Amino acid sequence: YRFVDHNRMASLIPWNQIRSNTVNFFMRRTQGELWKTLTSVSKSGMKKGRKNTRQPIRNLQRFYRIGASPMKVQFPGLNSPLNFDEPVQAASPMNIVEQSEEELKERASKMRTDLESKTVKKRHNREKLHPLERGFSGTQIVGQKLGPPPPSDSAKFDDFESYCLEVKRTSNMTRVFGRVHTMSTLVITGNGRGLAGYAVGKAPLHRTSTAIVNAMKMASRKLFYVQLHEDRTIYQDFYAECRNTRVFAQRRPAGFGLTCHPRLQKVCEAIGIKDIYVKVEGSTKNYLALTHAFVTGLLNQETFQQVAERKGLHVVEMSPSRHFLPEKIASPIMATLKTEDELLPIDRLNLDDFYGEGRYPLKKPKPAPFYENLPSHLDAEWRKHPFRNHEQVMHRLLADDVVPRWTRDARRGWGARKSELAIAGVEPLVTGIGLSHIVPKKE
Asked: What is the pLDDT of residue 304?
C-alpha cells in the first residue's frame, strides 16, 4: 500500500491497491491475444473456408465507454475533472446531470449511428457483361470469353477465342507433404472455322488464373481440324462415349441453333458448329469426358464423298424440305459403282443405324395431364372426333389444287360443285352426314 498526506491528496487513486500477480485471465492477457482466441483459424481450416465464419475483431471502446451510462452520471476523477481548490471532505463523489429530450434521443440512437457509420471495405467494381457473356453462373469465369491464347514461337492466334469449361480443386496424397491441393482447369480454344483444341491446365492452390493460362497454352499446341457440312453442322448423326458419358449428336437444318449441353454449346462455338442437337446420357458433370466424347465423334465423321468411295454407292439424301424426295449428293469417283447384284445385306442398312451403332437416345414419354380422364375432357375430345381428319384433308386439297386457298368461299364453291355433279349423276352419290335432303330417311 502507498499513503500520502491527506492535506495534499488530489484524488482517490493512491488508495487503489496495485497488484502485479493477479490471477484473472483477462488481466494477464493483452487485447490482441484475447481476440486471437476467437478469430484464429488453422491452416486446414482456412483451406476449408472457415475463416469467413469467424467473427471480426470489434473495437469495444467505440460502443461501450467506461463510466458512461444512460443517466449521465458524473464521477469526479473518472469521467469529469477534479477541483483541486475544494477540500477533500467537501468534494461530492458523483453528480447526476439532467438531460434534455434532444440529448436523450441522441444517446438512444448513438449505437445505431455508430454501426451505420462503420467503414465498409470498398468492393472492386466488376465490369458489367452482357447476359450472353456472363458465363454459366453469374460473374464466375467459367463459360466466359477469355480471348486468344498467348502466341507460341512464331505462331499467333489472333482470330482464336477461348472458353473455360471447368475450374475445380484436385488433391493428391503424397508421402512427404501429405495431401497436396492443386487447381485444375479445362479450356477449349478455336477459330470458329473448324480448327480447335482443348487441354487441362494445373497450378498451385488459389492460382486459378495461372491454371487457365497454362491450359490455354497447352490447348494452342493440341489443335485438331473438324470438317463441317456447309460450314454450319455435322455430316451425319453419330454416337460417342467416354467413361460413363454417352453422346447422341444429330444434324439439323439451317437456323435451328445449338440445342445441347451448356458446355457443348461453348465447344460448338469454338469449332464453328451453328446447327446441332445433342442428347447427353449418363454422367453429365464429367466435363472432360463430355468434351472428349463429343470431339471424338466429330473426328470420326466421314464426308459424303468419303462414304461414296468406301461403299461404292451413290449417297442420297431425303430432306423434309424437299418433301422427302431423293437427292443425289455424292457419287464414287475412284471406286467402281456397285450394281444391284453386288450389294451385300450390310450395304442396305440405314445410315442412322450404321453410325449410331444401333443405339438411339432415350425419349421419355410426357406424363399424362391430370385432366386426361375427367368427364368434361372426355366429352370435349368426343365432340372433336368428327373433325379428326380435317387437317390432312386440307393439306391434300391444297396440294392437288382442288381449292386455291383455304377460305370459306373456296370450300363452299367446291362443295356446291360436288353437289351439282352428284345430283346430275356424273359422280356417285356420297351417303353420309349433311345429305338428308337427297337420301330419304327411313320411316
From this structure: 92
Give the type of residue at 316: V
What are the cell numbers at 320? 423434309
Q: What is the DSSP code string of 233-289? A: B-SS-EEEEETTEEEEEEE--TT--EES-HHHHHHHHHHT--SEEEEEEE-SS-HHH
What are the grid coordinates assigned to 377, written together? 375432357
pLDDT of residue 3: 45
The residue ranges of DSSP E strands in 320-417, in sequence order, are 326-330
Distances (CA, A) of 194 to 123, 233, 273, 394: 41, 11, 8, 45
Rounded Cα gap, residues 273 and 282, in angstroms = 24
- CA dist., res. 166 & res. 293, Å (int): 16
Task: Kindly report, residue by residue over 362-383, the tens digit of the pLDDT.
Answer: 888 999 999 999 999 999 999 9
pLDDT of residue 88: 53
Helix runs in 300-369, H state only: 304-311, 351-355
CA distance 352 to 359: 9
Question: What's the CA gap between 87 and 195, in Å, rounded?
Answer: 98
Distance CA 169, CA 203 (A): 10
> How does 97-129 read in b/e, with b if 16+ C-beta sit within 10 Å?
eeeeeeeeeeeeeeeeeeeeeeeeeeeeeeeee
Model confidence, pTM: 0.61
Q: What's the burial of 144, exposed, middle or buried (CB within 10 Å: 0-12/13-18/19+)?
A: middle
pLDDT digits (tens, 9 = 90+) for 295-349: 999 999 999 999 999 989 999 988 888 888 889 999 999 999 999 889 888 787 7
Cell of 301: 465423321
**The predicted structure's pLDDT at residue 1:** 45
